[in-house]
Write a structure and sequence with these properties.
There is one protein chain. With 89 residues, this protein is an alpha+beta fold. The protein has a two-stranded parallel sheet. Helix 2 links the parallel strand 1 and strand 2.
Length: 89
């Protein structure tokens, strides 16, 4: 996964530049998947891991269907985000 490779490259760069053996890692939302994957693959490189608002198993239909293509970004109004949040519990 590209995000995981990018995270690993950034972590290596920071550790090398700062002379560190480990980092404090934090992921938010979808970033929790990337941060947790990095931590699982490189446990000696992570001092602590924080997962904020991790992704969970949904009870509603996914946005990804054969009819919908998920691009690099999408516009979501605050009203739509709140409505979707309230439906997914």
């Amino acid at each position: 996964m590209t995000g995981e490779r990018d995270f690993e490259a950034a972590a290596k760069w920071v550790m090398k530049r700062r002379g560190l053996k480990s980092l404090n890692v934090m992921g938010w939302s979808w970033g929790t998947v990337i941060a947790a994957t990095y931590t699982a693959r490189h446990p000696r490189s992570v001092n602590s891991l924080v997962l904020h608002a991790p992704v969970w198993v949904r009870k509603t239909a996914s946005l990804l269907t054969s009819a919908n293509k998920l691009g690099a970004w999408r516009a979501v109004t605050a009203k739509d985000a709140i409505k979707r949040w309230n439906r997914s519990t």
